[in-house]
Fold:
Amino acid sequence: MTRPTVYRPMTAEEAMQRLNTVMAHLWMVRRFLKHAEELEQAPQLHEVHRVIFDYVRAVEPSWQRRDAQEYLRRARGKWPKLQRVAELLQREYRQVSDHTNFEMAALSLQGCVHQIAEILNAVSTSPTEHICPEPIDAPEPQANPTRLSPPQMPGADMPEAGRVEAAS
Structure:
């Protein structure tokens, strides 16, 4: 039985700072996908790098003004689209290439979506504002006997900051 996740409350300013670091990771995934020659032949995946671009650029003006409330509003409002393209990339990247770079890009995008959800949920004032009922788990890598399992995301072996498990 899984225990419900309880988020350590954080201020809007703390959340904006943490999210801005996640935006840097999103930008690198976008850059890889945008310039990957293999994706030229996969128009169904062109939307992924475009949505990432839109997501990061949507919060940029509020970051520059240090307007945490507007930053969070925009991040929350565009999150469902980002989640949708993360799921799309996870489902479809193997049709383009089974190279580790694409696998890691899909995993990284899923990880960013997961972190964004956790941060936004930690600043929500009520459960109805949560963008997903529980944080999403990164998908299990498909078994491939000729390759090693993908590495864990950095920090995966440490407790996640901002999240406390409920007592049994």
